[in-house]
Amino acid sequence: MSTDSHSAHGHEHHVAHHFRSAEHEYLTSKEGIWLFMVTEILMFGGLFVGYSIFHNIYPEMFAEGAKSLDWKMGFTNTLVLIFSSLTMALGIYFLQRNQAKKAAMSLAITIFCGAIFMVIKYFEYTHKFHLGLYPGRFLDVTKVGAEHANLGMYFGFYYCMTGLHGIHVLLGMGLISWVLFRTVRGDFNSNYYTAVEGVGIFWHIVDLIWIFLFPLLYLVG
Amino acid sequence: MANSHDDSQGHHITPFATYLKVAGALFALTFLTVIAHHFNQQLGALAAPVAFLIATVKAVLVMLWFMHLKYDSVMNRVIFGAGFFFLALLLAFSGLDIWTRVIETSTL
Amino acid sequence: MANAAAHGSDKNYLNETSGIWSWLTTLDHKRIGIMYFVTVMFFFLLGGIMALLIRLELMSPGPTIMTADTYNQVMTYHGAIMVFMVIIPGIPAILGNFFLPIHIGAKDVAFPKLNLLSWYCLMAGALLAFSTLFTHKIDTGWTFYTPYSIKTGTSVVTMVIAAFIMGMSSILTGLNFIATVHKLRAPGMTMYRIPLFVWALYSTAILQVLATPVLGITLLLLTMERTFGVGIFDPALGGDPVLFQHFFWFYSHPAVYIMILPAMGVVSELIATFSRKTIFGYTAIAYSSLGIAGVSFFVWGHHMFVSGQSTTAGVLFSFITMLVGVPTAIKMFNWISTMYKGSVQMQSPMLFALGFLFLFAIGGVTGIMLAVLPVDVHFHDTYFVVAHFHYVMVGGTLMAIMGGFYYWFPKMFGKMYSEALARFSFVFIFIGFNVTFFPQFVLGAMGMPRRYFDYIPAYHSLNTISTVGSWLIATGFLIGLYTIINGLTKGAKAPANPWGGKTLEWTTTSPPPHFNFDVEPVITAGPYEYR
């Protein structure tokens, strides 16, 4: 492994006073990150539980809702997010190898992918609004010509799930921008990259949730 | 500074090629999901389980390699696993209630 | 145990730096604990005033001092303030923040910045919650049950977002404690040498991290339901209001143990120290904390026996709920065995611990009664339930908070308080509590429904007794407040170990230095090595 040649410049990281060593700090931070990720899983999970229950009660209504979604959009977004997950992982890989420039490039691509995802999402949303497919009580059944009187519930789930996910994509883009800035500034190297690792895990969670949302909303219905 | 700079020697670095392979598998599985979707009629009741099985495989790939859980401590794996366990619990008990209720015929 | 601190310097965490800004930006877990202390006490005062108003209104039938609508609002604020701002943050955020790192020989919690952030989250949530007082108020009860919470014209969305933010505060505290206990223990401090208070906080932290996110999504969905009518909890769109209760109690039942487990931890410390005896059944008490935390996730349906939940689920939840009695009883018996043949000293913290045992036993046993499905069908939504959970929450948690404050006050501020005043406060609180809440068991058995503004004349005399009791409690807490202020201003300098305690906090100075210990302690024995 390459060593200190790159870490000479930039902001040197200081281990907080209550840790014994950099490794001690790294491992503790990592556990904190995982504990936080559990809360993310459980929060999104509540939506998935609600979805499974009502999908079981009203399978035809959910099928009708899923038909009005364009799977090609969801499919493209899945590919975009998987690619962004790869570049995120590579960002950490390059930092571990002390290749800060390549790492910065990977992180920038990741942010760009997040932006593409949001643009596609924007077109999906506006298209739905155009068709009058609003959530809950705002969906006018006669105007839309829905077969099921409670189609609004499907779109309630659709907007809640993709909306909360979208907020997480935006948060993730913000966090990645922050570590990108710090990478360019020279804060990170093979000895210290905890923040990037944490942001990476967050971004992969965002990907993970989309992996399930795609079949759930677009395909199975 | 008191800390030693050799600490991170212990961190596992996943090879570049592995990342590419995992991403390749994820892309392939995404295509597989869509292909399976086109045989919805033939699969019948199996359509949903197949789609979720593929999604689960994808999720496991992401967790093990991209999130580095494969090389992480047992504690962190237990912590993350606990989330899924308690989620299953929420579904199980809420579902138990709803599916053992006396069903009133809905007008919807 | 480690070195007794015999340090000449007068520097401690309180006078290390000065000025309000040094407090608002502090990363020191002890100072954050003090900040929680001040703010939570303020919320407790507000919630207490609401409680007194409720009791005053119920002193006689018909409108007494307020309208029915005002009553609903006062009752809601009392519940929401006491639950989200007082007892959930109470022991973990005040005493836990201060003593958990010291108990395990650490210099701080794992993530000091998150610790400070959690205080700011609580403040932000509290401000938002109080802002509803100036808009449309709120009258749903602290449980926000649908469909009423969707239909009412009050500020449900603001309040729910406030609760969401306060939930984040709770998560951050829990996350911090788990990582601290796992990673920051001093050399030699194995998991079986940490004090039982730390075990209790650790079990609580697990609940905070695993249960609170589900409350988060439930409250977000309720917000969506009110703004967009998404239909998930609304029968008009085929949704299910009972599902809201499932989601809500998946958090809120474990939350009940978030409230009581730390109290049990405090009592374990008090009983060991004031009995001058090694705690009986250390591992049993430690594991019963984890056991209570574990079981708490499987029992939430007992809040919904008459909500339209299926009978199958009801019966199952009823049986599992009774299991909670097992680890709880293990703790009770171990505490009593610890006192047996010990040199029990009746100082004020111990009085509160004994008060806890007495009141919590009643609260616990009535809890088992309510767990029995057919009994609950009769008692549900009566004052019997109100009396039951006040015996647990007030008789249990608040007694432990008071006992813990008196126990650790010399360590936190380096001053002694007046023992006589502290005993007075105990007498008033203990007697007042029983006068207030015991009649409510009887009222509940007589069929008086909870949350009602008015009642029939047959309930009059018992309600009057209950109201008089509430004044006694208030007197007790005011004496307690005076004891603290008097101790802070006029108290004698506290020695490092006024009670002869054996846990690590007593080995350092009172108040502790900025980094807790002058030399990192090395632990060679368990926490309660008396005899």
Could you characterize what this model shows?
- The complex is a heterotrimer of chains A (about 220), B (about 110) and C (about 525).
- In chain A, about 75% of the residues lie in helices and about 0% in strands.
- Chain A is mainly alpha-helical.
- Chain A is elongated and about 65 Å long.
- Chain B is about 70% helix and about 0% strand.
- Chain B has helices at about 15-40, 40-45, 45-65, 75-100.
- The longest helix of chain B is centred in the C-terminal third of the chain and has 26 residues, at about 75-100.
- The radius of gyration of chain B is 21 Å and the shape is flat.
- With about 525 residues, chain C is mostly helical.
- The two termini of chain C are about 15 Å apart.
- At the A-B interface, helix 1, helix 3 and helix 7 of A face helix 1, helix 3 and helix 4 of B.
Tally of DSSP β-strands of chain B: 0
Could you give the distance between the termini of chain B? 69 Å
Uncertain residue segments of chain B:
1-9
- Number of helix segments of chain A? 7
The helix/strand order of chain A is: HHHHHHH
Please provide the ordered H/E string of secondary-structure elements of chain B: HHHH
The whole-angstrom Rg of chain B is 21 Å
Biggest sheet overview of chain A: none
Relative strand content of chain A? under 5%
- Name the average pLDDT of chain A: 91
- On the 0 to 100 scale, the average pLDDT of chain B is 85
Supply Rg of chain A: 21 Å
Supply the helix-strand structural class of chain B: mainly alpha
- Number of extended strands of chain A: 0
The count of helical stretches of chain B stands at 4
Distance between the termini of chain A: 49 Å
Uncertain runs of chain A are 1-9
Feature tags:
heterotrimer, A: 221 residues, mainly alpha, 7 helices, 76% helix, B: mainly alpha, disordered N terminus
SSE blueprint:
The complex is a heterotrimer of chains A (221), B (108) and C (531).
Chain A: H1 22-57, H2 59-67, H3 71-96, H4 100-131, H5 141-144, H6 151-185, H7 194-220
Chain B: H1 16-38, H2 40-43, H3 47-66, H4 74-99
Chain C: H1 20-24, H2 29-57, H3 68-103, H4 112-131, H5 148-151, H6 156-183, H7 196-228, H8 241-275, H9 282-295, H10 311-323, H11 325-339, H12 348-371, H13 373-379, H14 383-413, H15 419-445, H16 460-490
Helix pairs in contact in C: 2-3, 2-4, 2-16, 3-6, 3-7, 3-8, 3-14, 4-6, 6-7, 7-8, 7-9, 8-9, 8-11, 8-12, 8-14, 9-11, 12-14, 12-15, 14-15, 15-16
